[in-house]
Amino acid sequence: MKKTIRDFDFDNKKVIVRCDFNVPIKNKEIVDDTRIVKALKTINYLIEHNAKIILMSHLGRIKTKEDIKENSLYLVKLKLEELLNKKISFSSVTRGSELEEKVKALHPKDILLVENTRFEDLEDKKESSNNQELAKYWASLGEIFINDAFGTIHRSHASNVGIASYLDSGIGFLVEEEIKYLDTVKQAKRPLTIIMGGAKVSDKLELIYSLAEKADYILLGGAMSLTFLSSLGYNMGKSLIEKEQLNNCKNILDRYKEKIILPVDFKCFKSFDNRDYIVRKIYEFDNDDIALDIDNLTVKLYKSVLNKTNTCFWNGPLGVVEKNESKDGSLKVLEYLNNLNITTILGGGDIVGFATKEKMDKKITFLSTGGGATLEYLSDKKLPGYEAIADEK
């Protein structure tokens, strides 16, 4: 077992907390604050225990100077102040005298948010490559390290694995909760049903193989299901297909044909921007059809499987949920799950964000903040950010 936040005396100590504030921002507004809200339990615990709190996180990918302008954590600072009802400090730099002076000025219960750790990626990817000089510098700012960023725990970065190499470390409440609930999928009460959507088969091949050994049923949707159907010889029109994955899909279907269930009908559009659609069964596609959502026959089929399920894990929407005309399939399945008395875990930002936006998250057992981290943990891969944390004595 790893050390947790409960294993430390934080009184008057400088505590570095790696959070996951990688939230979606549109028109200079935070669209979904789920990841910020999920960090509050750890932050409030540290406030209650008189810690001097230094929060670190990344936001987006930083490749150009233009990316820096678009990915400041200052909006997160404002949202944190609103949620905590408390003023917090903000360092506009990731190293140097401004940061150091603000750390020195901290009193017990004070909070400092450091600017986007990936600003250090602009030159030589110092954050993402776990540059040891940078990791040692950041570690020098604190006395204890708490990793509460499950969304990046599958990465070896300077701000997680790096800092943990130099400071006494533990996991926060969010990471502890994530591991606990994802273990329920691994040790699920059967039958276990996996719902998997999203665009790319290539991103999830390994996961499908891994989960197919554990699951009783796998319900596929999104563009990835179209590649599977194409591998069976169906004409999917102009829909998004990963041709290089057709053989892999066919092999998976041959191996797990009793478990994998594919859509039987879709809403089809003539272009992505078109609002008009026609419902097609999988053998009725025209050459210019673009499938963007599952339709009612598939929803009915999937409900019949869920009705005999005890545990459900869902990763990735079943359609293009950003578009009103192609979100109904995901919404109807989500509504049905909300009315079932079963263990339901949603994993990955897209489906979690959709459920939150549609106010369909209240009866869900657990919303996982991880995307790749969730998938890798369920695939039994080692998580570097978790492995770097000290074990309990």
How would you summarize the topology of this molecule?
Blueprint: E1 14-18, E2 25-26, E3 29-30, H1 34-48, E4 52-56, H2 65-70, H3 74-84, E5 89-91, H4 97-104, E6 111-114, H5 132-139, E7 144-147, H6 158-164, E8 168-171, H7 173-186, E9 192-196, H8 205-214, E10 217-220, H9 222-231, H10 246-255, E11 260-261, E12 265-269, E13 278-281, E14 290-294, H11 296-306, E15 311-315, H12 328-338, E16 343-347, H13 349-357, E17 366-368, H14 372-378, H15 384-387
Parallel strand pairs: 1-4, 1-7, 4-6, 5-6, 7-8, 9-10, 9-15, 10-11, 15-16, 16-17
Antiparallel strand pairs: 2-3, 12-13, 12-14
Helix pairs in contact: 1-3, 5-6, 9-10, 11-12
Report the end-to-end length measured between terminal Cα atoms. 9 Å
Task: Identify the strand order in the major beta sheet.
Answer: 5-6-4-1-7-8
Q: Quote the beta fraction.
A: 15-25%
Computed CA radius of gyration, to the nearest angstrom? 22 Å
Number of helices, counting only DSSP H or I runs of 4 residues or more? 15
Question: How many strand elements?
Answer: 17
Which regions contain 5 or more consecutive residues with pLDDT less than 50?
none
* Oligomeric state of the chains in view: single chain
Task: State the share of residues found in helices, binned by percent.
Answer: 25-40%
